[in-house]
Amino acid sequence: MPNRPLLADEGFKAPDSSVFQPKHWFDVDLGPIHFYLNKATGLTMFAALFVAVLFWLGFRRARIVPRGVQNVCESLYEFIDKSVALEIIGQRGRKYSPYLVVLFSFVLICNVLAIVPVAQFPATSRIAVPMVLALVTWVMFNVAGIRANGARAYFGEMVNPAPTAPAWIKVILGPIELLSTLIVRPFTLAVRLFANMFAGHMLLLIFSEGATYLLPKPPFVFGAVSLLVAFILTGFELIIDVLQAYIITVLTAAYIAGATAEHEHEAAFTSDAHSSDAVPIPATAPATAA
């Protein structure tokens, strides 16, 4: 009987970037526009629909004493409204509370899907989702700043952030402030969320795949350790999911607060200066002789 070569162990194959590029379920081409649906976009749509249905169920028949889903929705809204909107923006932040609540809820669901069985993929690990969220926030805080201060004052503060500084400092600070507000803020907002979710999910995949590969192989201890680490990382991943949703919400509120309150201190200082410089003349003061 001829000897058959034993199948060699192909070794451990670590997950790569293809994990974040799932196969398309279907593709549709409409001229130059290409539409497709895959696991990532499907989970993004699921997260949006889940948040919409959750708040619809919570507030469609609101009661004075909340129960069930209404209690969950009201607790979430109250938490974001008081600890984020009012705490960071102030009383005028109440009108931004609905957006902040939806933003927090949507990002949280997208993140938590990474550890939900069957799904096991964070939609925010694809840069497109954080980019869209950052773009919406960018439009919102710039529009809020223009409405609060006027376009000339709002952009003038970016171009000339230090009016009393020497000219050579103004030349340096102006472009930096302009670049920071209009480009760096939305860029870092998107990359922060994307990078954390990408790295966390990749790390979890490595130890999960490692446990699958090592558990059947003696001495089995390495597979057991890898499995244990995977369970521990799942707990850390849940903490990071909540934390990243909270961070993007807080930063959005901080950008809105900075844009809307940018010139309030200057207006107060100017009014105080004018009032202190003006010396009241008593009505009964005697007229001085020419």
Quick rundown:
The protein is mostly helical and about 290 residues long. It has helices at about 40-60, 70-90, 95-110, 130-150, 150-160, 165-215, 220-260, 265-275; strands at about 25-30, 35-40.
Give structural notes:
The protein has 290 residues and is mainly alpha-helical. It has one domain (28-264). 66% of the residues lie in helices and 4% in strands. The protein is built from 8 helices and 2 strands, in the order E-E-H-H-H-H-H-H-H-H. The protein has helices at residues 39-59, 69-89, 97-112, 128-149, 151-159, 167-214, 221-260, 264-277, and strands at 24-30, 33-38. A two-stranded antiparallel ribbon has the order 1-2. A hairpin with a 2-residue loop joins strand 1 (24-30) and strand 2 (33-38). Helix 1 packs across helix 3 (97-112) and helix 2 (69-89) crosses helix 3 (97-112). The longest helix is centred in the middle third of the chain and has 48 residues, at 167-214. The protein is globular. The N and C termini lie far apart (134 Å).
